[in-house]
Each structure stands twice: as C-alpha cells, then as structure tokens.
Design goal:
339 residues, four-stranded antiparallel beta sheet, 13 helices, 2 domains, alpha/beta, eight-stranded mixed beta sheet
Length: 339
C-alpha cells in the first residue's frame, strides 16, 4: 500500500482548466442479462476527460470500474452484457453510433487500454515483436525495417533495456514489470487521444509500481493525452490523479478534485474507504473496515445502494435514490445528507 502524505496530495495537479474535452461520457448504462435477471453493472455513469487530465476511478471490486472502461471501447462481453443507453463522445463523435468496423479503427489508434494483468493480455505463443507490431501494422501500415525501428523506439521510450533482444522474447521470459511496460508500449504505440488504465499496477511490487507510475506521468506530460485510471489504491490516486470519481454499485456517488476528496470527503462510502487506508504512523490494533457486503447488481433497491451499510442512513435513503448535489465548484455528491 502506498503511503498517503501531504507531499503526494500536493503533487496531484489541479484539474485541467482547458475546456477542450477529449472524451465525454453521459449517462452510460451497461446491463448484464443472465438467468439471475438483469444486472445493472454500469448505471448512468457520466464524466469528462480533458487534455492532460488524469481521472481516478475508485471503488470496491464489482462496483463497475472495469466494465466502464470496456464499455467506452465497446469491448463489454457480449451477448451477456449490452450497452443500453447513454453517449460516449470522443471529440464530439458518438462511439455508440459507429459500426463494429469503424470501432476497430478507434481501438488502439484513438483510445487505448492498459489491462490489469499483462500475462493474460499478452499472447504466450507470439514474440513481443509480433504483438507490438500488430498495432503498428493495422493502424499505421508499417512493415519490415520501418516497423522494427518503430518498435525499438517504443521500447526505448518505455525505458526497456536492450529493446532489440526483448522484441525477440516471449512474455514468459520477461519480468512482471517488464511485461507491464510492454503492454503500455502497445497501448501508446499509435499515440492515442485517450488512455484507459485498468489497475495496471496491481500485480507489481512497490518499487516497480513507482517507476511505472512516474513513466506514465512523464509520457502524459510529453504527449498531453488524458488518462482514465482505475485503481483501488488511494496512494496511487494521490500521486497520479487530478480528479477522482468514486463508484458504488454501478453509479458514481462522488466526484471531486483529488485534494478536495482527501480533505473533505462528502459521501459516507468515500469516508469509509479513506478510513480503511492504514496509516503507518499511527499504531492501531484493528484496521478499519466497511461493515456488510456490496449489494448484488441483480437486486438493487429503489433507494441508495449504500443504505444497508451506511451509519447515517435515513428513511428517505431506503426508498429514493439521491440526485447529484453540487457542494463546490470541484465537488458533487449523491447523498441526502447534503440535500
């Protein structure tokens, strides 16, 4: 667990002032259709990504973070899941209106994703050269020596030592940190307009994690692309993100700048998450936890999904879902306590 401190919080830049929104998601809904019924995996999610901005998406496992990323790329598993509503606007173009063929020109070239486990993201029977080169051939039409030179250049950019030898290696011959840099190189190979990072540091040790995060920040500063960073680690949020969206049961329950979220979290769920982060400077016999279990997305009530676990629950919370309430210019929350 990365340590939270004032220096980390101050290093997270203020939200981008540029009004040039690269990616705008509005009321996105992705439902699962199974024998258990209809599960609302993503239920009315909205957010903006501006040039050079990093938006952190946090929440417990099963809250809908990864499904949100997959839905943006229209890679949500079908036919079990379907995008049933909303808009995904990439510089004004609605990706939900594009054909499958048109989406293939968007994925990898305009929007790229770094997945959580590089060992499953990479093909074990193909060399690194084949896998890095696939995107370059498909989207940039590179072949032969030109492709090789570009692949070497990418690996050098990701600070991978001896790139010529690595390109002829197979995934199992590389370390976990090296594999994660390879999938990052693939994602960044066509200089995408938006990068989605789905818990890219989960399988890495602390030192490798720190190096990869610094590398991503450096590359973002150089190219200016926005990042949607999915994580459960608030230390990474403090270090990487300009703004934060907290997800619970398929909905965003709070959005705020990183500094505001850490200093004055408004939603009881956000407060509980932050209490759960251990403080190495404070001696304690028992770590804080959130009582109860996340609700099933197949049996959500009309009221607030967090109500059964909330210490501040009111009668209204159980029967009516709260609307979005703006507390400050950089903070909104869905909680009746602030109505």
């Amino acid at each position: 667990m990365t340590i939270l401190d004032s220096q980390s919080l101050e290093s997270a830049a203020a939200p981008a002032r540029d009004d040039d929104v690269v990616l705008r998601v509005r009321d996105l809904k992705t439902y699962l259709y199974t024998k258990r019924g209809v599960g609302k995996a993503v239920d009315g999610v909205s957010f903006d990504l501006r040039r050079g901005e990093t938006l952190g998406l946090v929440g417990e496992s099963g809250s809908g973070k990864s499904m949100t990323c997959l839905s943006v790329l229209r890679l949500n598993p079908e036919p079990a899941s379907r995008i049933v509503g909303g808009q995904i606007l990439l510089r004004g173009e609605d990706l939900l209106q594009k054909t499958d063929s048109e989406m293939r020109t968007v994925r990898g070239r305009r929007i790229a994703i770094v997945l959580q486990d590089p060992m499953t993201a990479l093909n074990p029977v193909l060399t690194i050269k084949d896998q890095v080169g696939e995107t370059l051939r498909l989207h940039q039409g590179l072949r032969g020596r030109t492709l090789w030179q570009r692949a070497v250049e990418l690996l050098k950019k990701l600070r991978i030592s001896d790139p010529e030898r690595r390109l002829n290696s197979y995934p199992h011959q590389l370390s976990g940190g090296m594999r994660q840099r390879i999938v990052s190189a693939i994602a960044l190979s066509c200089e995408p307009e938006v990068l989605l990072a789905d818990e890219p540091t989960t399988a890495l040790d602390v030192t490798v994690q720190a190096a990869l995060l610094k590398l991503l920040k450096d590359l973002q500063r150089e190219a200016g692309f926005p990042i949607l960073f999915v994580t459960h680690d608030f230390g990474i949020v403090a270090r990487m993100c300009d703004t934060v969206a907290v997800m619970y049961a398929g909905k965003i329950v709070e959005k705020a700048s990183t500094a505001t979220l850490f200093r004055s979290p408004a939603h009881p769920y956000t407060q509980a998450l932050l209490r759960s982060v251990p403080d190495v400077l404070v001696e304690t016999e028992r770590l804080a936890s959130i009582e109860g279990q996340p609700p099933s997305i197949f049996a959500l009530s009309q009221g607030c999904a967090f109500a059964p676990r909330c210490p501040h629950v009111m009668d209204r919370c159980r029967v009516e879902y709260p609307s979005e309430i703006r507390l400050a210019q950089d903070q909104t929350v869905r909680c009746w306590r602030h109505a």
